[in-house]
Please model this.
Amino acid sequence: MTGLDPITAESVPLYAKSTYMTREALHELIDRIPESDIVAAQRVLEHLARDASFRAAMCAPPDDDPVTAGDAEAMMRARKDLRAGRVVPHDEILREFGIG
Model:
């Protein structure tokens, strides 16, 4: 014995029993979120509830295009800017777009 409870139909969470998520299953999943992560979960759910482009991005397939030389160069420049402190705070971007 490993000390773990046996898996029974009753012990499997509702959200894990089906590929279709119901509101009831979602509520059960939310109830399992640690208190320390509630704010992060709230932000994600608020975006899902009101932002069609966010929903589309979350449902989009992963980007499988190869990284080009130009992409790699842009990522290197971005990392250098980040290390040098040449960044714009997230809150400032939100204000600029009238979101925050």
Observations:
- The chain has two domains: 1-60, 63-100.
- The radius of gyration is 21 Å.
- The chain has five helices and no strands.
- The chain has a mean pLDDT of 81.
